[in-house]
Amino acid sequence: MQNLTVLGSTGSIGGSTLDVVARHPDKFRIVALTAHRQLDLLFRQCIQFNPRYAVLLDEVAAVQLSKMLRDAASSTEVLCGVDALEQVCVLPEVDTVMAAIVGAAGLRPTLAAAKAGKKILLANKETLVMAGNVFMDAVRASGSALLPIDSEHNAIFQAMPRGYDGDMAANGIKRILLTASGGPFRNTPLAELQAVTPDQACAHPNWVMGRKISVDSASMMNKGLEVIEAHWLFNASADDIQVVIHPQSVIHSLVEYVDGSVIAQLGNPDMRTPIAYGLAYPERIDSGVGALDLFKVATLDFVAPDYERFPCLSLAYQALRAAGTAPAVLNAANEIAVAAFLDKRIPFLSIPRVIAAVLDALPVSTVCCLDDVLSADAAARHAAQLQIQQLSK
Ligand code: NAD
Ligand code: MG
Known about the structure:
Layout: E1 2-7, H1 12-22, E2 28-35, H2 39-49, E3 53-56, H3 59-71, E4 77-80, H4 82-90, E5 96-99, H5 107-115, E6 119-122, H6 125-142, E7 146-148, H7 151-159, E8 173-180, H8 190-193, H9 198-202, H10 211-219, H11 221-234, E9 241-245, E10 251-257, E11 262-266, H12 272-280, H13 294-297, H14 311-322, H15 326-342, H16 350-361, H17 370-391
Parallel strand pairs: 1-2, 1-5, 2-3, 3-4, 5-6, 6-7, 8-9
Antiparallel strand pairs: 8-10, 10-11
Helix pairs in contact: 2-3, 4-5, 5-6, 6-11, 6-15, 10-15, 11-14, 14-15, 14-16, 15-16, 15-17, 16-17
The structure holds nicotinamide-adenine-dinucleotide and magnesium ion.
């Protein structure tokens, strides 16, 4: 029996995780579920999975949930606040932590899980983007098993030699080919991008996801964050990672070897596949995902990315090459800019403008510990807010 904490259980990845877990009651048990403030959904999840703990960030919602659970004769204990997120990651009875909080808020609990040596199913790519070296050092020091859940990184993990040790050359690996759908605006005329709405940006052609990552996919910042994520997971340099636009989202990424072999992982675009892979690794279990019908897919297309249309992708490569605090600054500026776009305070095309201005304004420094990351994150958020105020004047 594997005992799980699901961080961000009310989100898109959290829901898919619970869907897979529910198919295998003999294999997985839920110890803790966490959410920001989605009270009703978390209540229903508690009734279905009977966790020992439920965590809400919002205090008022936590009191309410506690009452609802008592009235339903549930024994789940409700905790509240950021510290409680860390607490449910390091419990001795927890084997595995699904890190599926969105954004920088996921960093501290995911890092706590790494320090405690838990098996980590990593969906929260922002952890690696912000604090790649701090997090990877913690994983190595504690001996945590780290399984990438992001579909592309899960595909790369599957296409790499078992037990890959971070040495691409010694393993005969030439390049990582990171696929991207190109998002909803792949073919939208540039002139029309200025006026696109949050709902248009969130209408992804192939994947159903949370709103922040959906906007990231539309700007291609998601792929930029994933380049940085791949750098840390596989010890690959910026030059070793090639983004390939593949609109069908059937090939989830590829690994090219020196002998000319290219190994890919294919499947329907459904996150339950990488989640089931991570949960059961090294075994395979049913995920609920239907068989891939190659005759229906029929055609697979590949196009080089257009860096002019998608400046966020170049900004991410730039931040990866600058190293140190630059990726944390990129991530923070992006979170602020995306939130402003979702609130209709800035137009879509201002997202890369805000990020570029913040990267230009803040000097890059080295990252030795978590505090270095958190102060760069705070400075970048502040600088991004100032940029947005100037833009809206
Ligand atoms: P989502 O918005 O659907 O869900 C986010 C979850 O985090 C919710 O449970 C929410 O309650 C919780 N949360 C939000 N803010 C919080 C805060 N400040 N403190 C604590 N909890 C908070 O997001 P998602 O699409 O499920 O994405 C989750 C993570 O997985 C992101 O890092 C995303 O990049 C990554 N990811 C998602 C997908 C996908 O298909 N959705 C694919 C690959 C990677
Ligand atoms: Mg992805």
